[in-house]
Structure formats: structure tokens, C-alpha cells
Design a protein that fits this description.
homodimer; about 270 residues; alpha+beta; ten-stranded mixed beta sheet; tRNA pseudouridine synthase A (chains A, B); PsdUridine_synth_TruA_a/b_dom (chains A, B); EC 5.4.99.12 (chains A, B); tRNA pseudouridine(38-40) synthase activity (chains A, B); PsdUridine_synth_TruA (chains A, B)
């Protein structure tokens, strides 16, 4: 497309990042370090353009991403196959751009996103795994995994997720659809005397802190403090006060974002 | 055992650590941060004793350990089952003491070690895995895995490892026995378009930089720069100059240390 005498392109990228050292994805007021700033600075270094990227959504401080998606309009004529390496050479090593492709000029990473999958990881056992400490929430006492699985079933379908949303949100609608909610266990690691499990939630959208509040409540189910059926009863209550605490950020990862033409790969 | 009027005990611990932030295991001159210092400071905080711990061996700056073993003699009467948690509360979160047990008073972690296993991990593919970047050496171009496996076979048995040892060493003997040398591939990760492989070496002892020089040479085999048979020819040459470069530290992990009563668990 030609725009203002220049040929412009819309470039869509997939990026992984370790969120440990960042105040979330999105640019913040003040000097807070964010993934978005890193990426925009790298693009500026590469092309000279001071532009704004659009992501599929924000992630909070300490939250990770395996497959965050963003896009931006650029006048740069750098061949598309050179972009990943060029940006990776200009960002910190906790950010890796994995894919770059040209998309229609009206593609918008947030508006076009059809589904997202988040993963939350918990390590059960006396000690954390020191090598995964930034991406696993450590729970030292035993959990009833089957009760948690049972609880997840109440979430599937279209529901009002008011109870599982931060009160700090100002959305018009709290209705979201969860397509899949599953709990997957890694094998027990004998020497570490522990195992990790992952909660995967796939939905058409997620409210602020929604995955973390769901996980915080499910952990209470796993601890035997609540029955599995509470997960459904809390949905019905439409009251944040009925749900459990917000689970810690570092166990959470934006796993994958799906667009129109794509089917979930799991 | 009673010693100077006090009952003393010899405590043996197994510790995991992420070596990224340390100048190796062993105490260094000056203000360099080491794992040993962290552990000794924690023991001092806990017991008031300013003692020296003895480890199975040192690890270099940036090298990790899954199962490093150390021991120390203490007058403290803290029950053995409380030691792990007490020390873990006093060290940085990149160190986790996983096991503590009372051993005979003459047990010495280095002298009593019968076998050690080291693991070296390489990620093959265009990009590193951002979440494992501190523990995988990233190799962006393809490697001939079968040629590397073939090369590993030359190492098994009793050999003079002069060629695979840093010239900065002053050992009486360069003879070591490798009991097992294997290469294990993780599954190909489609979305990351990459896979990791691990080289496990188990032997009765390792010379300074030995694993890293072996890996650096094997990578040249994998790149097609040398035939597999060079791994054996280099052994025969007894000349460090014939081997390849020393592979980077961060891919290396002290995996396990075996003592008399134990059999390797692999």
C-alpha cells in the first residue's frame, strides 16, 4: 500500500519474553521498563521510525509470554526475512522475536485476535526447581489435582466472569467464553521430589487478572478449603469478593494467540 | 562423636544452584560472589559457626549444579530434618538445598566421590529458548547429531585426557575413566522451530574444563569441520592444541555425584 507517497507495510510479529525484569508488556508512565518500549526502541534503532506497536493485549509485571503477537505499520523496506534477526540483535536477551510476516494493512493484533491461551504453572513439592523459579509458582504442600480438574469444568462455556475479574477494571461486559480449561501434569521428578502442573485456559478474551484469580481460587480447591463446585457458585455470585486471592504473576504465561485463519494447535 | 567436649556431627547436603550470578562454587579472593560463600554465611547465621564446607569439586563461573554435594562438621544440635528449610530461608533464591543427612565423621565430599555426571545442553535452531537462555548453549546452524554420537564413543574407557584439559591445570595425572558418554535429544519443538540436546558424561573424575573442551570439539564434529574419529585421535595426541575450543560455561551443569553405597540412577 502507498501512503503519503511511501509504500508502507503492516508487519506482524510473534515474540517470546521472560517477563521477570519488566513492568509488564505495555508502556508505562515514568521510567518503568517494559517490553513494548524495548521493541519500539529496537525498531527505531533499525529503521529510524518512532512508531507505536499494537499487541494482542497487555501482560502484567512479571508475567511471561511464549507467543505474544504485535503489529506495526512501517515505511521501512527491509526484507521481511531479515526482521527477526535484526530486532533480536537490538533487544535484551530476555526478549526473542520468533516470527515476522507481512499482513493486510488493516490487520490489528488486538481486534483480530479470536482466541488466546494462557498457561499457569505450579510446582508441588518441598522445594522449588531452582532453574524454573521465575516461571513456576511453588506450592510446598500437597494439592488435590482431581478436585482442581473438576473445578475447571465449571469454567467452560459462556459466562459472566465478574467474580474472577479485578475490581480495578472498567469493562462494558464481563461476559467471556472459555473454550477449553485443562490441567496437565509433568512427570514426577524423583530426585527433586516434586512435579509441576500446568493449567491451560483458552478463551475468546480474558478480563484483568482473570486467569490469576481463577488459579488462586482453584488452589483453594486443591488445598481442600473449598469444594470444586465453588468454582461454579462463584461465577453465579458475580462478586469478586467470593473468589480466592490473585495468584502470583510469575507462574503465568501468555501461551498463544489465535487469529481468524488459524486453528488452536493443541 | 564427641570433640573438645562437644558432640559434633558431619552433615552432607545436596544442593542445586543456578550459577548465572556466581563466580563459581568455590570461595575466591576479593569480593567475588560465590555459592560457597552464600552457604557458609547461611550456616553462620543459623548456627553462629564460621566454618568451611567441603564440596565434591568446584564449578566454574556460570556453571550450574543440579546435584552438587558438600559436607561440614558442626557442633550445632539443630535436628537434621530442619536444616534444608533453615538454610534455604537464608540463601538467595538461586540456591536450593535439597537434602541433608548425617554421615560418618570421616566422610569427605571430594575424596569419597566415586563418579560424577555432567550434562551439557545445546539448543539447535534459529532462536534460543528465552526461558532457558541461561542454561542452554544456542547453536543456530544444523548439527550432525549422529556424527557427534559416534565421536562420544571414543571417550568411553580409561584414557589420558591431557588434550581435553585446560593447560592452566597442574595435576599429577591426566588419566581418567569415562563410564558413559551419551547424547539425548529433547523432542523437536515445532513452534520454537528448535530442539535441545544434552550430552551426559559420567566418569570417575574430570580435569579442569574437560567437559567444556570435549563439547567444544564435538560441536566441530557436528558442524562437519572434523570427522568423528578426531575425538579419538585428539586423545592420542595428548596435546590441548589439537582439541577444539572450550564451550561456553552456561550450557554446563554438574548433574549428579555418586558415592560408595550408591549406584548411578540413570
Amino acid at each position: 500500500m502507498r501512503f503519503g507517497g511511501q509504500t508502507v507495510r503492516n508487519i506482524r510479529m510473534t515474540v517470546s519474553y521472560d517477563g521477570t525484569a519488566y513492568n509488564g508488556f505495555q508502556t508505562q508512565p515514568g521510567d518503568l521498563r517494559t517490553v513494548q518500549d524495548q521493541l519500539e526502541q529496537a525498531i527505531k534503532q533499525l529503521t529510524g521510525e518512532q512508531l507505536k506497536i499494537t499487541a494482542s493485549g497487555r501482560t502484567d509485571a512479571g508475567v511471561h509470554a511464549r507467543g505474544q503477537v504485535f503489529n506495526f505499520i512501517t515505511e521501512s523496506q527491509i526484507p521481511i526475512e531479515r526482521w527477526c534477526m535484526a530486532l533480536n540483535a537490538r533487544v535484551a536477551e530476555d526478549i526473542v522475536v520468533r516470527d515476522a510476516r507481512i499482513v493486510p494493512i488493516d490487520f490489528h493484533s488486538r481486534r483480530a485476535a479470536k482466541r488466546k491461551t494462557y498457561r499457569y504453572t505450579v510446582r508441588c513439592g518441598k522445594n522449588p526447581d531452582v532453574f524454573k523459579r521465575h516461571m513456576e509458582f511453588h506450592h510446598p504442600t500437597p494439592l488435590n489435582i482431581e478436585a482442581m480438574r473438576e473445578g475447571l469444568r465449571y469454567l467452560v462455556g459462556e459466562h459472566d466472569f465478574t467474580s474472577y475479574s479485578s475490581v480495578r477494571t472498567a469493562k462494558n461486559s464481563f461476559i467471556r467464553t472459555i473454550y477449553e480449561a485443562k490441567l496437565v501434569c509433568d512427570p514426577f521428578e524423583e530426585e527433586l521430589n516434586s512435579f509441576a502442573f500446568h493449567i491451560f485456559l483458552t478463551g475468546n478474551g480474558f478480563l484483568y487478572n482473570m486467569v490469576r484469580i481463577i488459579v488462586g481460587t482453584l488452589l483453594q480447591v486443591g488445598e481442600g478449603k473449598r469444594p470444586s463446585s465453588d468454582i461454579g457458585a462463584i461465577l453465579d455470585a458475580k462478586n469478586r469478593g467470593k473468589a480466592g486471592p490473585t495468584a502470583m504473576a510469575h507462574g503465568l504465561m501468555l501461551w498463544e494467540v489465535f487469529y481468524e485463519e488459524e486453528a488452536p494447535s493443541s
